[in-house]
UniProtKB/TrEMBL annotation:
PANTHER family: MULTIDRUG RESISTANCE PROTEIN MDTH (PTHR23517:SF2), RESISTANCE PROTEIN MDTM, PUTATIVE-RELATED-RELATED (PTHR23517). This is Membrane protein. It comes from the Bacteria. It is a multi-pass membrane protein.
Amino acid sequence: MTRISLRDYVPATREGRIFVLISLINSVGTGLYLAGSAVFFVRSVGLTTAEVGLGLAVSGVVGFVAIVPIGAVADHIGAKRTLTYLQVWRGAWFVALSFAHGPVAFTLVSSCLAAAEAATQPLTQAVASATTEESDRTRTMAILRSVRNIGFSAGALLAAPLLATDSVWTYRGLVLATALAYVLTAAMLARLRLTGTTTVQRKVDPLTAIKGFRDWRYLLLTGLNGVLNLHVTILSVGIPLWVLQATPVAEGFVPLLILVNTVMSIVLQVPVSKGAERQGGALRALRLAGFALAASCLALAAADGPSSALPAGVLLLCGCVLLTFGEMWQAVGGWDLSYAYAPDDRKSVYLSVFSLGNTGQRIAGPALITGVVIAAGPAGWAVLAVVFCTAGLLAAPVVRLLEHAVPGSPVPVEGHSS
């Protein structure tokens, strides 16, 4: 087993370390907002629960539609410059959100924010990859994921005592602090020197770049990764509702499960990423993600059986641990394969297309998990386990198709060479 030291949690380059700091500040701001957003929407913006849901649904669709066009712009003017502009855009609209009132203003501002937020993840991947050498790319992305989890947790902890004051201006202050965090990260991004290639990739207008995307093999990889990314909705929606509706476990057990997931993600993401650095490691990671998520679904289904809280709680905990390993393997495999099979002159467009799977999951996932899986009971979880297992098994043939399409690919399929 590979030994892990504290140095493994520090990027190898100065630029990588600065970008990690940028991500930490960004995630603390996001954590502040997420912790108080639900209360802010009701107490300050003056929305009903239904209006919040409708506004977020509309903004989710806007974000989905905006991803690829923004990725095309990034290929035209550079990923770092585009990401910097997006952070300024987010800061400005968070200022607007702090003073918004009513469902129309909320939906408009949320949609403007969603357009930028949806494109931030693929551009972050592109810029982060340019802060380090190719051999250290996967580890750097793992460090960023761990740091983001730390930042989200720190932001939530900072927000907790402020929310207790139950003041409209306190809620607005949290949103304004989020805006400040994004403007600060934009200033730091503008001064960041990159060692890799995130300069202008191809002098083609964005509309032409979007129309020219016909890589169906990459779309297959995008779809598989989107299916595996359902773990996000299972953790945030599926497990809490399943605990309340189908198990004898008290609702206070849910925060403990979320804590287990967060701590594991912070501590173990970097060690898990080590396996993807070997030949065929990214494919193995994606396959293991499918199997781990399938096993998690079966454990959650079994939690419906016991009549007492202790065995049900143990099964839920096992399901959460398996889900977290699936989450970490999916992240590692997704990062590496999506970047490896994206052409150098169209990185941002390809990575933006790849993120459509994640964004689509956020839109369709809650309805699927609540309306189909949980509604069907243990049988629903069993069917979802089959879906995850199938996605894991399909990873190899899909990657083989990509490998044939890109001779000399740096991520060969195990036991196969181009």
